[in-house]
Design brief:
- By secondary structure, this protein is of the alpha/beta class.
- It contains 11 helices and 5 strands.
- Helix 6 (about 125-140) runs parallel beside helix 10 (about 200-210).
- The longest helix is centred in the C-terminal third of the chain and has 15 residues, at about 185-195.
Length: about 220
């Protein structure tokens, strides 16, 4: 049973999400929050496995709430929601620790599948959607310089290549075909990459690739 907390400032949206999730026999909706601060408080009290988190909320927005949860309850996974699929706040949420992102107009089946996916610790963002989102964000949104969260230092040449292919949106099978190695070998390398970068999942690994300029450097040179 996956325990889910829903956080959205619109009561009708909260109710709609609950009506989608609650009938699934493997999901239990344990609570609803109207803002980010309430979401953090309820998560500590109710101990959900997954928080379905709207990004734009009063008091404490979804990005800040996600960062708080990463500190006080890291075992709870966050699935971020946004009205727009090309939204700079999505990247901020992933950087803060969200395990995935969905636009609010997804189908009920996609929402349920995403909740199940983030519960396993995987990223619930289609690799190509994530790459397109980050490409748009990096190209169009000016940002203040910030220290890179990770560097390629310590990665082997093979691990660096796999990180680059992952950031381009390739799944494990496509990476294996590209490099002519087995899928299990790809999985082992990805586990090593995650550990050396200090990231939790594919979403954060792609964010790190853009933050460090790995993907931008490849685009300029190619």
């Amino acid at each position: 049973m996956i325990r889910v907390l829903i956080a959205d400032d619109q009561p009708l949206v909260r109710r709609g999400l609950a009506l989608i999730l609650a009938p699934d026999p493997g999901i239990e909706v344990v609570g609803e929050a109207a803002d980010g601060a309430e979401a953090v408080a309820l998560a500590q009290e109710l101990r959900p496995d997954v928080v379905v988190m709207d990004i734009r909320m009063p008091v404490l927005d979804g990005v800040a709430a996600t960062a708080r949860l990463a500190e006080v309850r890291p075992e709870t996974r966050v699935l971020a929601l946004s009205t727009f699929d090309m939204d700079e706040y999505v990247v901020a949420a992933l950087r803060a620790g969200a395990c995935g992102f969905l636009p609010k107009d997804v189908s009920p089946e996609e929402l349920i599948a995403a909740v199940r996916t983030v519960h396993t610790g995987e990223a619930a963002v289609a690799p190509r959607l994530l790459t397109r989102l980050l490409s748009t964000y990096v190209r169009t949104v000016p940002r203040e310089p910030r220290p890179a969260p990770a560097t390629p230092d310590g990665l082997t040449p093979r691990e660096l290549e796999i990180w680059r292919l992952l950031a381009r949106g390739l799944d494990n099978a496509a990476i294996a075909a590209e490099l002519d190695i087995s899928v299990s070998t790809v999985k082992n390398h990805i586990t090593a990459v995650f550990g050396k970068l200090g990231v939790r999942d594919r979403a954060q690994a792609v964010v790190a690739a853009y933050e460090t300029g790995l993907v931008e450097a490849e685009r300029r040179s190619g």
